[in-house]
Design brief:
The chain is of the alpha/beta class and 365 residues long. It is built from twelve helices and 20 strands. The protein folds into two domains: 219 residues, Alanine racemase (TIM Barrel, Alpha-Beta Barrel), CATH 3.20.20; 117 residues, Beta Barrel (Lyase, Ornithine Decarboxylase, Chain A, domain 1), CATH 2.40.37.20. Strand 3, helix 3 and strand 4 form a beta-alpha-beta unit. The two termini are 20 Å apart.
């Protein structure tokens, strides 16, 4: 492997391929389009790995990211973020060259789009099924009807269907709660599809979140799924029971720079600008920003949960370790930190290294 001398985001390609294959198979078995969300990895090189499993349609989170992946050969892209009408020139440029879908969740945006869209474009109406971040409540059918009616004024616009992100599955306290939240969202989306499919026979349901796409089995009437985090997974997903430790494909590898014997703490070069500030509750009830993997006797070893990333400042990470483990750390060692949230950690990294030593560039490189 390339010599690591500073915090480095390391990706295990084989685990990623296994995770992609599993999700692609699930989509195929349920007769759904697999439109993975590329905001997690943000990399043209990693995007090529998906093509091994016949993926030809993707999701992104910004116009900038859509431009990056379009430049790298992707021709069917959904921007899963409420349309920013200030970017209409860039949106038209993309729509002129690829099959582009955008999201609308209010009449104001729709009225601007009908005046300014110049090329064929697909539009999904963003539905809020309980995450309470953005989108139209499924009960607000009058608002939805007004938006759909508005679209008819521009022949370049095609109504694709209804799209939701069931992001509140990430806040579940059990796998049963994930199943329940998914099923509730599914019923809401199916109800909308039934209401509008008489006038729009090809209308679709698009759903996307890693917890439910990984665990759930009921996808009746769903046309596509858009998970993103699943390629890497992370501690948050393991903590929810969504994945196993062996499914987590990424580590932030950090140098040890100091030891604080009086506090049983190890200081690493790897802080909030590398790991993000996302945390989950550790086994002792305290905030944890990552789990620790060390090299011992020629093998990698995941340390017990009472050894963890306990605090972060901008560049510093503080590992709280047991007295028994303290002796296993030396200044100049490299330790692997399993991130709590791989999407944010990957975004902060800007470029990655595979376990085979290959450098992976991203949209941020």
């Amino acid at each position: 492997m390339t010599e690591i001398i500073r915090p480095t985001f390391v990706v295990d390609k084989e685990i990623c391929l296994r995770n992609i294959e599993r999700m692609a198979k699930k989509a195929s078995e349920n007769k759904m389009r697999f439109r993975p969300h590329f905001k997690t990895h943000q990399s043209a090189k990693i995007g090529e790995w998906f093509k091994l499993f016949d993926v030809d349609a993707i999701t992104v989170s910004s116009v900038n990211m859509a431009e990056y992946f379009a430049t790298n050969g992707w021709k069917d892209i959904t921007i899963a973020f409420p349309v920013n009408v200030l970017e209409i020139t860039n949106i038209n440029r993309l729509a002129a060259n690829i099959k582009l879908n955008i999201l609308v969740e209010n009449l104001d945006s729709a009225q601007i789009l009908i005046k300014k869209i110049r090329y064929p474009i697909g539009i999904y109406i963003k539905i809020d099924t309980g995450y309470n971040r953005t989108g139209i409540a499924p009960s607000k059918t009058g608002i939805i009807e007004n938006i759909i009616s508005c679209f008819s004024q521009n022949k370049k616009i095609t109504l694709k269907g209804f799209l939701t992100h069931t992001g509140h599955t990430y806040q579940a306290r059990s796998t049963n709660e994930i199943f329940s939240r998914h099923f509730d969202a599914l019923l809401k989306m199916k109800s909308l599809k039934q209401r509008f499919k008489i006038d729009f026979p090809k209308i679709e349901i698009s759903m996307g979140d890693t917890p439910s796409n990984t665990l759930c089995t009921n996808f009746s009437d769903v046309d596509e799924i858009r998970p993103g985090n699943f390629i890497f997974y992370d501690l948050m997903m393991e903590n929810l029971g969504v994945c196993d430790y062996k499914d987590i494909a990424v580590r932030m590898v950090c140098p040890v720079v100091a030891k604080q014997l009086s506090r049983n703490e190890i200081v690493i070069y790897g802080g909030a600008v590398h790991l993000s500030q996302d945390s989950i509750a550790n086994i002792d009830g305290k905030r944890m920003f990552g789990r620790i993997v060390i090299q011992k006797d020629g093998e990698k070893k995941l340390l017990p949960p009472l050894n963890y990333v306990a605090r972060l400042s901008q560049e510093h990470g503080i590992l709280k370790v047991t007295q028994a483990q303290f002796k296993n750390f030396q200044v100049g060692d490299l330790v692997e930190i399993i991130p709590v949230h791989s999407c944010l950690t990957a975004n902060l990294a800007k470029k990655y290294l595979t376990t085979d030593g290959e450098e992976i560039l991203t949209v941020n490189s």
